[in-house]
Amino acid sequence: MDFLQPTTWAEALEAKAAHPDAVAVAGGTDVMVGINFGHLRPSLLMDLTRVEDLQEWSIEDGAVRLGAGVSYARVIAELGTQLPGLAMASRTIGSPQIRNRGTVGGNLATASPAGDAHPALLAADAQVEVASVRGSRRIPVPDFYTGVKRNAMDADELITAVLVVPPSGPQQYSKIGTRNAMVISVAAFGLALHPDRRAVGTGIGSAAPTPRRAPAAEQFLADELTGTGLWESRAELPAATAGRFGELVADAASPIDDVRGSARYRLHALSVMACRALTWAWADYRTDTGKEV
Amino acid sequence: MSTPTPTRTPTGAPEHLTGPGRGGVGDDAQRPDGVLKVRGEFAYGSDLWMEDMLWGVTVRSPHPYARIRSIDIGAALATPGVRAVLTADDVPGEKVYGLELADQPVLALDVVRHQGEPVALVAADHPETARLAASRIHVDYEVWEPITDARAALGHPTWNQVHDSAAEVTELSRENAHLHPQGNLVRHLKIRTGDPAPTADVVVVGEYEVGMQDQAFLGPESGLAVPAEDGGVELYVATQWLHVDQRQICSALALPPAKVRLTLAGVGGAFGGREDLSMHVHACLLALHTGKPVKMSYNREESFFGHVHRHPATMRYEHGATHDGQLIYVKASIYFDGGAYASSTPAVVGNGGTMGIGPYVVPNVHVDCYGAYTNNPPCGAMRGFGSVQTAFGYESQMDALAAELGMDPVELRCRNAMEEGSPTPTGQVIDSPAPVAELLRRLEAMPMPTRVDDGEVDLRDMPGGVSNTTHGEGVRRGVGYAVAYKNVAFSEGYDDYSTARVRLEVVGGEASATVHTAAAEVGQGLVTVEQQIARTELGVKQVTVHPKDTAVGSAGSTSASRQTYVTGGAVKAACEKVRAQVLARAERLVGRTVPDLRLAGGAVVSDAEDIAVPLVDVLGDEALEETVEWHHRPTEAIDPETGQGFAHVQYAFSAHRAVVDVDTELGLVKVVEMACTQDVGKAINPQAVLGQIQGGTAQGLGLAVMEEILLKDGKVRNPSFTDYLIPTILDMPPMRIEVLEYADPHAPYGLRGVGEAPNISSGPAVLAAIRAATGLPLTRVPVRPEHLTGL
Amino acid sequence: MRLICTVNGTQQQVDDVWEGESLLYVLRERMGLPGSKNACEQGECGSCTVLLDGLPVCACLVAAGQAEARQVETVEGMADGGALDPVQQAFLDAGAVQCGFCTPGLLVSTRDLLQRSGRPSDAETREALAGNLCRCTGYEKILDAVRLAADRLAQSGTGGHR
């Protein structure tokens, strides 16, 4: 095994182009587990923690540009206002030790359906910026996940950053685990209300081969809120609307039975979480009258 | 026989433990290994190190049941850095071993009977080289269909097929349906007492299931074997019972005990999982074969295959009672899945059966308790040992009966509670305090946890925690009670003893004692207790604990809540003999008999005659030493047809109250508070007693709501801490504890074993509380969200 | 490969490190610092918690090379010579140590918590220590130890900086 420690992004991309089978490591929360147990023996291990650009976030053209190497702990501490859904998701990830090392870029690269960041990124309409020596491109996050632990990147590409437009409305994130901390999700749900464009964003985790949105639920809710004038009136949300939204979210999933939970439970849990998340988000929206939309 | 000095001692070999120099029986003395532990300097088995040591790894079967056609070790041997590759052919002595029955191969012979069975060994310069070489060993298997159900393995119809004999015929007529030549039955225990056909006003029938729990000690199986000049081997190992290990290792290596010398390395928790051999023989084989020190340390995945687990159980209970809640009869069928090898299944069946109806007085009892071989992972000792499983059964039944009678569940229990003088189902009369009803009444009297309702939602207080699944929606509170009892020390006629060597001498101008036993310190604090007893009995401050090794006689196992009782008893007895010598010597010094001479404050004192002779003067430069083998009072084997007999030397009693919040829509549980009452006879170290109760409670809670080794067709689906979940600090609630001290007149200091009882009563209390919150019958643990949502 | 980093204030250099080794392996097997424990190697138990450039991390998940030129602090660096750190002393006094395998990681995590938050609430403590599994104690005495250490640090004025 070789070990490479590029200090610039150009150097990292050159190396990845020269060694497409190189495994990039940042927080090590997936890669090192594989190596420790002999399940992963890459010929080249490339440490990305010395590439400074990756460790920063900034505001660019009105969007948060989150470097792929920013830790969950920093997302929680520094980006709670700009990326509330992602910050809530980050708080549910592993332990403090894991949150100090793990990165959103790593979560995307692994592309596990159980990755905690995905539902929040989906709900917030994030884009993933990937790069190679050939140039860079932006992939809308729903298109990024292509299969179980597969993503849309080419062999010579690395993740540069995630771009997310700060919210115009409330966001929520809920995750089921069978322990009260440090647990892999059995099912997860992310929600973003986008009052500025009268839209709704959703994200489902651990309930399909890939993280995915629930488009019918989004459309239903956006239509309801628009059709009944609720965006403007901020009146109470009918319980039936939240219930129907929950059902539609569950309809979008296609879970399996596995060691962490049954498919039927996952569907049920999604509908409950979606209904509750919407209720909480709407309550926030109703009290957040200061913000013009 | 002389024991040659080993050529070299590894870094991390245990040292004599001294300090802290205060604390007798009844005090909160601090651990003598505590400072080392907080400094990171206490060496566990996995910390042992030698300059030229090799790393050993195990090749294990991926199949639960298969015949080995051939093993090709060529590619592994050819890997640079590899020093040895061994298979069953390289085992020089007996090729099978076992705690009670020798039925488990050191390395697989022709058939593997469980996933993870050791097949071959590799030693190499670097662990990665060893792992790589292990992956290059090719084993050709003829895969067989595994037997994975204990009842099917015995040919017993399932509960709902009682009249369908077709079921048994199909299972057992299969090819290779018998895992062992003697069949699939390990033990069948029967209890028959009272009326064989009793009737009652009210009858409650229930079927229950307990999943397979893992000890999940944090320190992995590990040790270092060092080849010795005399052709023998020094093994430093984390274990629970050095001498039973030694016996089995000697047998496998065809070496006499003098050539197989064991020393206890630091143990990172045990809970029963280290009572069987793991890497012991393997490391010795590799060391003797290579002539080099060999270290083996399992990773977490291998650890799940490297030790026995708690037996899963299926149980059917029938309770009959009068309208006013007097128990008339209990009938029970209890099945323990022992997995592929016997381990301690016979004794687990013994406990499960003899205490299988709980601490209640019942005139008519009919129990059948079975242990079966299957192709599931071998099961054996785990804290609570057969009693944890049955407590879920009998306590669930008591709640069901209370509901049927419209009676308060605590009241029903108290009406039927055992007390001193009560007969057990095995016909034994309880001859020491048994405050079952008092434990429950005291729990009831404790204040309930208060709800803080300040309008703010703290997710950390909610079911689901910071995962943000509820802000109070769907949450219902429930309260549940349970009481349990457990035998202390070894039972059924086993000659249970411990050996202690105590030496008193002047060191550095101060009289000090050294205690040498082979009793394994696994974290519970026995080393502290040994010091406390010596301080109290010999009146000295400085007590050194000698490393635990086989240079002194057996101490028996660190299990069955027995070490404070049995090794404590041995240390006390040895101290008494040393004290007698000292007093005799003192009398010679003063030239007359002094009736009230005693040892205190480093002196021989008499209050009557105002004598205080410093021990340093009495001892001079001579050391007084005594070795005592101390046996607790004998028990007897139970009658094979009726189960009657004086089976157990002592019982421990504890009770729990659990308060839970359940998100009834999502099926998530937050345990809000656990309260416990326990009679410990005499708290030798009150702080350590609390630690045992708190820790045991946590393991019971874990089994109730999250801990299970999940199996499919005999294969473990979750051999990791990612998917085998144990409680975190956010899962364990605050506890209220009341410790009672009703002395057992038969035990040293009146003490009662502490470690297991709280592990038994906590889980059933949690289950009862979840039932109370949800109204669901809940007949299986661990309770999963699916069970609570009907999905 | 060669690895140079600072451990507990002392520069350490080790050679012939296999690139797939973790920082935990290097500490334990190459630097003679086995205080950080190996219990799961997958970031689920916290027994190997060390400070890497001041942040608590699982040493088992740090590739050895990632520690190059970094500052590592382990349990072995907590005591000031013969004097235990107040957190170490509190764990002893509260009876928070049984088998002790989780203790090094818990000490490092607790010290970090108390540096950041002088008098944490129990809820804060629980969330901060949720990544450190203990199988012996049921955590009650660990909470006692954290409260005791926080009190003592506050009294001596050497506690949190927040």
**CATH architecture tag of the domain at 431-486 and 650-789 in chain B:** 2-Layer Sandwich
Rounded to the nearest angstrom, the distance between the terminal CA atoms of chain C is: 41 Å
Enter the CATH topology name of the largest domain in chain C.
Answer: Ubiquitin-like (UB roll)
Helices and strands of chain C, in order, run as EEHEEEHHHH
The CATH H-level homologous superfamily of the domain at 431-486 and 650-789 in chain B: Aldehyde oxidase/xanthine dehydrogenase, molybdopterin binding domain
Number of helices of chain B: 18
Structural class of chain B: alpha+beta
CATH architectural group of the largest domain in chain C:
Roll
CATH class of the largest domain in chain C: Alpha Beta
Biggest sheet architecture of chain C: 5 strands, mixed
Number of helices of chain C: 5
Which bin fits the share of residues in helices of chain C?
25-40%
- Pair with the biggest interface: B-C, 65 and 60 residues
Low-confidence stretches of chain B: 1-6
Q: What coarse outline of chain C follows from CA principal-axis ratios?
A: globular
Largest sheet of chain B: 7 strands, mixed
Q: Within the largest sheet of chain B, what's the order of strands?
A: 3-7-1-14-11-12-13
Write the layout of secondary structure elements.
The complex is a heterotrimer of chains A (293), B (791) and C (162).
Chain A: E1 2-4, H1 9-18, E2 23-25, H2 31-36, E3 44-47, E4 57-60, E5 63-67, H3 72-78, H4 84-91, H5 96-101, H6 104-110, H7 117-123, E6 127-132, E7 135-140, H8 141-144, E8 145-147, E9 150-151, E10 158-164, E11 171-176, E12 187-194, E13 199-205, H9 215-227, H10 230-233, H11 239-251, H12 263-287
Parallel strand pairs in A: 1-3, 2-3
Antiparallel strand pairs in A: 4-5, 5-10, 6-7, 6-10, 8-9, 11-12, 12-13
Helix pairs in contact in A: 3-4, 4-7, 9-11, 11-12
Chain B: H1 34-39, E1 54-60, E2 66-72, H2 74-77, E3 82-86, E4 96-97, E5 104-105, E6 111-112, E7 118-124, H3 127-135, E8 138-143, H4 150-154, H5 166-172, E9 185-193, E10 202-210, E11 222-227, E12 233-237, H6 242-253, E13 260-264, H7 280-290, E14 294-297, H8 300-306, E15 309-310, E16 313-321, E17 327-337, H9 345-354, E18 364-372, E19 379-380, H10 387-405, H11 409-416, H12 436-445, E20 475-488, E21 497-507, E22 510-517, H13 526-538, E23 542-545, H14 563-590, E24 598-600, E25 603-606, E26 611-614, H15 615-619, E27 624-631, E28 650-663, E29 668-679, H16 686-705, E30 711-712, E31 715-716, E32 735-740, H17 757-774, E33 780-781, H18 785-789
Parallel strand pairs in B: 1-14, 10-33, 12-13, 15-19, 17-18, 22-23, 29-32
Antiparallel strand pairs in B: 1-7, 2-6, 2-8, 3-7, 4-5, 9-18, 10-16, 11-12, 11-14, 16-17, 20-28, 21-22, 21-27, 24-25, 25-26, 28-29, 30-31
Chain C: E1 3-7, E2 10-14, H1 23-30, E3 49-52, E4 55-58, E5 71-73, H2 86-93, H3 103-116, H4 122-128, H5 140-156
Parallel strand pairs in C: 1-5
Antiparallel strand pairs in C: 1-2, 3-4, 3-5
